[in-house]
Amino acid sequence: MTVLSPGKVTVDVRLVPEDLGQALRRDARAGLTATPKTMPPVWFYDDRGCELYEAITRTPEYYPFRTERDLLRRSAGQIAEAAGASVLVELGSGTSEKTRLLLEAMAAGTAGLAGYVPFDVAEGTLRSAAEAVAEEFGVGVHAVVGDFHEHLEDIPDLDGPRLVAFLGSTIGNFPPPQRREFLENLASLLGPSDRFLLATDLVKPVDRLVAAYDDAEGVTAAFDLNLLSVLNRELGADFDPDRFEHVAAWDPENRWMEMRLRAREAMTVHVEELDLVVEFAAGEQMRTEISSKFTFDLVRRELGAVGLQVTGLWTDPAGDYLLTLARPA
Ligand code: AVJ
């Protein structure tokens, strides 16, 4: 049992830069030699990628970020009361306002706020978020530098009910089998007094979805193309981003948005670190992200399938976004 002492920050590093390098080489070798070619979206988020994502959240077309923030502004108090937890565990820790809305609601709530456990791959962001919250709320912070798919069990067991929050609809980026595995692992960590808050973007008219992933200003296109710069810098590849274009498409069968990079012409790319030569045909598309869109029923079914029972639902007036609170059944 971990005890958090007020104002003290502990950072538990489960993922070191070498691990990230190795994971990138593994994903690039598998993805660039696959048919169709594909790269996981986690590699978007270098410093430039994080900047571009922040810029995406300010585009008029990309509604999820604003909708979630406004929904939390309206419902954080109710969620904190319904959860009755005194520790916030945040997967994909944010420096965002959203974290604060939940922390403030919990601090003002019946259970009060006794601690914060941010969990993320980016050590730098995590440390600053941890220090800031410890400073501002005077609570103990135990940060975990880890990967959602490998280090969930390193989330400390604490002597108080925990609210585990997974915001941003990032769960939509996990292909269904990975999503099931993630939810199973997470459910197995929750004790009877713990609660899980899941954010999901909902299915809506396709024109709004496609616009959200292909804004007129081209910020999302730059975000997508930046992946090639990451591969060039980290793996010594010689991608020319100008010879690729961003594609955003709705997949009605799987009900997810796909982002892809399309080769404008046939080309050969060398990836020095992997001693790999990759051929792209003209018009060939490499998938760089899926973003699944949900329905109430799908969320209830997927949580139910891993033994989690829905205890609360919050959605915005337009029904664009959903916050679901669940408990072990
Ligand atoms: C923050 C990961 C949820 O999938 O909507 C934004 C990332 N991709 N524009 C999403 C993203 C393209 C975003 N997530």
Strand content: 25-35%
Shape: globular
| Strand arrangement across the biggest beta sheet | 1-4-3-2-5-6-13-12
Count the strands?
Answer: 13
Q: Tell me roughly what share of residues is in helical segments.
A: 25-40%
Number of helices: 9
> Residue-averaged pLDDT, rounded?
95
Order of helices and strands: EHHHEHEHEEHEHHEEEEEHEE
List all distinct small molecules, including ions and cofactors, that are bound in this structure: N,N,N-trimethyl-histidine
Distance between the termini: 23 Å
Give the class from helix and strand content and strand pairing: alpha/beta
* pLDDT < 50 stretches: none
Compile the SSE list and pairings.
Elements: E1 9-13, H1 17-32, H2 47-56, H3 64-83, E2 87-91, H4 97-108, E3 115-120, H5 123-137, E4 140-145, E5 162-166, H6 176-189, E6 195-201, H7 206-212, H8 219-235, E7 244-251, E8 256-263, E9 267-271, E10 276-280, E11 285-292, H9 296-304, E12 308-315, E13 321-328
Parallel strand pairs: 1-4, 2-3, 2-5, 3-4, 5-6
Antiparallel strand pairs: 6-13, 7-8, 8-11, 9-10, 12-13
Helix pairs in contact: 2-8, 3-4
The structure holds N,N,N-trimethyl-histidine.
